[in-house]
Amino acid sequence: MLPKARVEHTMSGRLRVRVSDFRGDVSYFRSAIDKLSNYPEIAGLRATPMTGSFIIEHKTDLPSIRKIAADCEVFDLQETSSPPPRQGPPPPRGNMADDRTLALEGDIATVIGLLGLAAYQATRGHGLGPATENFWNAFGALRILKNPYIALVFGGLGILQLTTGRWAGSASSLLFYAFVVRQLSGSSPEMQAPANRTNRNPKTL
Asked: In terms of C-beta density within 10 A (0-12 exposed, 13-18 middle, 19 or more buried), how is residue 108 classed?
């Protein structure tokens, strides 16, 4: 039985689909991209395993996408009562602004809130966390921010806290760090079909 998929957003030449049951399953999304990219009707593919979603750029219609997905046994695209696709030229490939507007607004609010809390904690004399927290921040600076200077600063703070005896954070924090490292090591934020695979007909392979 094929996994159920639902249409999240549709417009001319572009479709966003979510497969909630396989959220986080990197192998499923990698296999799905490999299969779907063999069809000439599919102009472009992106998948984000952590959210369980596909962005499908196409040169056909929704019923055809549904049939393609079923034929290659990727997912069963459910009927939707969404409004008809918005007319107009398809967006330039790689333009993800319409998908990220709400997320960006939430990110800005989160950043402002965290900066406010940081300032509040600093005024109370709680400027430094335990060593594990600073080492975690150093890891994030290297892996996510790609900034070795910030990583060096937090690494130094971690060593400083080791010398003062404040080395371990709470059990829940350490458990969360372990889950995040496991997720980062097992998946990439986004994957897409290689350029040389798109628009190839499986009959010619």
From this structure: exposed
Label residue 88 left, alpha or beta by phi (over 0 means left) and psi (-120 to 50 means alpha): left
* Gap between the terminal Cα atoms of the chain: 26
B/e letters for 32-45, b = 16+ CB within 10 Å, e = fewer, are bbebbbbbebbbbb
User: Among residues 121, 149, 153, which one has the least CA distance to residue 135?
Assistant: 153
Contact 200, 38 (CB under 8 A): yes
C-alpha 32/C-alpha 69 separation (Å) is 9
pLDDT category, 135, cuts 50, 70, 90? confident
Secondary structure of residue 42 in the 3-state scheme: strand
Helices 171-186 and 131-143: crossing angle in degrees, nearest 10, is 20
Q: What is the pLDDT of residues 79-109, one digit of tens each?
A: 654 444 555 555 555 444 444 455 555 567 7
The neighbour count for residue 92, using CB atoms within 10 Å, is 6
180: left (phi over 0), alpha (psi -120 to 50) or beta: alpha
Closest CA to 20 of 2, 5, 38, 37: 5
